[in-house]
Automatic annotation (TrEMBL):
GO terms for biological process: cAMP biosynthetic process; intracellular signal transduction. One of its GO terms (molecular function) is adenylate cyclase activity. SUPFAM superfamilies: ARM repeat, Nucleotide cyclase, TolB, N-terminal domain, TPR-like. Signal peptide: none annotated. This is Guanylyl cyclase. It comes from Parasedimentitalea huanghaiensis. Residues 7-122 form the Guanylate cyclase domain. InterPro entries: A/G_cyclase (IPR001054), Adenylyl/Guanylyl_Cyclase_3/4 (IPR050697), ARM-like (IPR011989), ARM-type_fold (IPR016024), Nucleotide_cyclase (IPR029787), TPR-like_helical_dom_sf (IPR011990). Gene3D superfamilies: Leucine-rich Repeat Variant, Nucleotide cyclase, Tetratricopeptide repeat domain, TolB, N-terminal domain.
Length: 734
């Protein structure tokens, strides 16, 4: 026998005896399936050792608390996702207890208080829940970012002293942890096809929470003023930081006041015990005389922080006050008069005092991460702020201006982590959105610069760096790395809506659009006046689910709010075209390019670049391009227009017409005769495209079989004709 430190996990089925009494066969079947198809594969994946299986439960050992908790969350997620697909009587609910402590090893078995405490904690867990010892929380802190409900000191059977216990909160953070792979693994565990259908996949990178996990719970009765909020209150203290007023006589100090506000929002948002509204949504009140209760109502928060800054040379005065919107009372206020070079220390002190005023205990990591990635150089901060304002304008020219400012900030402070991250994001937009020309770069060069700038953040970490890393890796088709980066961003800053948008794109492009939608909902709640690219992600999630009607509804509503949102208008055009609403499709394309003539509209499909590619569904982007081809056609006479191009256009235009004639949405009775004519075109490129288009049309193009058969022996075209014959007739012979 020998002693060692180990992470111990107990699990059992809730209501096992009752389930056996109701239907013994169904219960045993469900128990065996859960063990063999979920618990055992997950245990292997997380390097867990099964010590005993005891009928309705099990006893396991892990080498670390991180692996044990990660296993437990993935297990509960997988079971929760699989249960709705189970027949009545086979739906089992498990509870889990985890402890880390000293154990005695005797052969393959383990004994001691470390084991006994884990067993007692399991009994304290709710159905579908996880209960952990305080030592487990301490071990995973900074590694798995989770919310806990503190159960306090609990007396448990046969243990001399009370045990400090906590239960895991199953919210968006738990869902993100479930998406994170085990640190020592690169692939998710294998699972049967049946369980993949039920749960997507049972673990690792492919499991996130079920529907509704991202809904913000609404607490019980609150003061009348708060009950009128336009948005539901989060179940934690919620805060909006209004732009600090510039009371200096110098309007050039506007950037100083804005930078102060930005820094406070950024640092406060890292506190997991707070809900902090994003900068975009609070800066709409800049320069206005605000009504605090009304602001709280519009943003869905209970507290509002406002203040002012007056700078004169090297001296600065800052006033800040935290207001309870329900009562209008000040719960904290402070003034700083002193040297401007001390402003960063003042910001850090404000953060701690605000947290204390709201009765929030900062974790050790949160204490350490205040001002993470920031600079201590006031000049670098002001230059960065100018660039950040340009970056947020979201245009090619402003993006190029932002790059220049970020570079200047880094010349002043080469270790400014947030500036390196912002520079990477600006270059990413250059290649992703084809805003590369104002940068004087090709798209490939902009991508290279984004990667190079990102590398500088390795030793200068920040939440923004993780957002940038996720975007850069997703653009370069490193899907799982992008997902991990987005998870880290949310872990580091649970109030950053951009982190949730980054994770949403990782979900949408890897075949989990439903989860992407929930992440986007979370981002929109954090940033109620969200920019149009949030809607772009939302629309593409619906689009990839095949729900074109919902896609159209989302885009229509967004374009009513912002008719100049070109990126949305383009997707709307493609969506309407796929719905065969060609008048609306053409109008949406004209909205995206109001000065374009017919030729320019037709060129959009050829030059449009989608920001991402799907991991396993390249047809997603192709279908958008097809929709743009159709949207460009004159809606009153599309066939006549294509006929004209076939008869009078150059080779490129004739080939383009033949391509469009094969797209779904046009009537085969109209398109097949034109394609048959194109098979006799003088250009083999046009002939080949006509054959491909006829193959896409399929059986409805049966009248083209003789013409295709005549081309079977023609060089280059023959193979395409043969493939078309098979697609149309199902046989190699016409």
């Amino acid at each position: 026998m020998n002693r060692r430190l180990a992470a111990i996990l107990f699990y059992d089925v809730v209501g096992y005896s009752r389930a056996m009494g109701q239907d013994e066969t169904a219960t045993l079947t469900a128990l065996k399936q859960t063990y063999s198809q979920i618990i055992q594969p997950l245990a292997d994946y997380h390097q867990g050792r099964m010590i005993k299986v005891m009928g309705d439960g099990g006893f396991m050992e892990f080498t670390s608390a991180v692996d044990a908790v990660h296993f437990a969350i993935c297990m509960q997620h997988a079971i929760g996702l699989a249960n709705p697909h189970q027949v009545e009587g086979q739906r089992l609910s498990y509870r889990i207890g985890i402890n880390i402590g000293d154990v005695i090893a005797d052969g393959d078995d383990l004994y001691g208080d470390g084991v006994n405490i884990a067993a007692r904690l399991e009994a304290l867990a709710d159905p579908g829940g996880i209960c952990v010892h305080q030592s487990v929380r301490e071990q995973i802190r900074g590694k798995l970012h989770l919310d806990f409900h503190d159960l306090g000191e609990v007396d448990v059977k046969n243990i001399e002293k009370p045990v400090r216990a906590s239960s895991v909160e199953f919210n968006h953070l738990a869902a993100v942890v479930a998406a994170l792979p085990a640190e020592h693994q690169t692939q998710a565990p294998k699972a049967s096809i049946r369980w993949r259908t039920a749960a997507g996949l049972v673990a690792g990178l492919f499991i996130l929470g079920g529907s509704g996990w991202w809904q913000i719970s609404v607490p019980g009765p609150a003061p009348t003023e708060i009950e009128r909020t336009a948005l539901p209150l989060p179940d934690k203290p919620s805060l909006a930081v209004l732009p600090f007023a510039n009371l200096s006589n110098d309007p050039n100090q506007e950037g100083f006041a804005d930078g102060l506000t930005e820094d406070l929002i950024t640092d406060l948002s890292r506190i997991s015990g707070l809900f902090v509204v994003a900068r975009n949504s609070t800066f709409v009140y800049k320069g206005q005389s605000v009504n605090i209760p009304l602001v709280a109502e519009e943003l869905g928060v209970q507290y509002v922080l406002e203040g002012s800054a007056r700078r004169s040379g090297d001296q600065v005065r800052v006033n800040a006050q935290l207001i309870d919107a329900a009562t209008g009372g000040h719960i904290w206020a402070e003034r700083y008069d002193g040297d401007v070079t001390d402003i960063f220390k003042v910001q850090d002190a404000f953060i701690r005092k605000i947290a204390k005023a709201l009765a929030i205990n900062l974790t050790m990591e949160e204490e350490q991460e205040i001002a993470l990635g920031q600079t201590s150089d006031i000049e670098a901060r002001e230059v960065f702020q100018t660039g950040w304002e340009s970056f947020l304008e979201y245009s090619a020219e402003d993006n190029a201006s932002a790059v220049d400012q970020f570079k200047k900030a880094l010349e002043i402070d080469p270790d400014y982590g947030r500036a390196h991250a912002a520079l990477s994001l600006a270059y990413l937009r250059g290649c992703q959105l084809r805003w590369n020309k104002p940068l004087g770069l090709s798209a490939g060069e902009a991508n290279a610069y984004a990667i190079r700038s990102l590398a500088e953040t390795t030793e200068r970490p920040s939440s923004l760096a993780n957002v940038a890393a996720s975007g850069v890796n997703l653009y370069n088709n490193r899907y799982e790395i992008a997902k991990i980066d987005a998870t880290r961003a949310i872990t580091q800053d649970p109030n950053d809506p951009e982190a949730y948008i980054a994770m949403a794109w990782s979900m949408v492009t890897t075949g989990q659009p439903e989860l992407g939608l929930e992440l986007i909902d979370r981002a929109m709640r954090l940033n109620p006046t969200y920019p149009s690219y949030y809607v772009f992600a939302q629309a593409m999630a619906h689009y990839s689910m095949g729900d074109l009607e919902q896609t159209a509804m989302v885009l229509e509503a967004a374009l009513e709010r912002d008719p100049k949102a070109e990126a949305l208008a383009i997707i709307a055009a493609a969506t309407y075209a796929r719905l065969q609403r060609f008048d609306e499709a053409h109008a949406a394309l004209k909205l995206a390019a109001p000065e374009a003539d017919q030729a320019a509209l037709g060129a959009i499909a050829y030059i449009y670049h989608f920001p991402f590619e799907w991991e396993q569904r390249p047809e997603m982007v192709a279908s958008v391009i097809d929709g743009l081809h159709l949207a460009a056609l004159p809606p009153d006479k599309p066939i006549e227009y294509l006929l004209g191009r076939l008869q009078t256009g150059d080779t490129s235009k004739r080939r383009g017409a033949a391509l469009i004639l094969g797209l779904p949405g046009l009537d085969a009775a109209d398109t097949v005769p034109l394609l048959i004519t194109a098979l006799s075109d003088e250009s083999k490129a046009v002939q080949g495209q006509a054959a491909v288009s006829l193959g896409k049309i399929g059986p409805a193009a049966a009248s083209a079989l003789p013409a295709l058969a005549a081309l079977k022996e023609v060089p280059i075209v023959g193979r395409k004709a043969q493939k078309a014959i098979v697609a149309i007739s199902g046989s190699a012979q016409p």
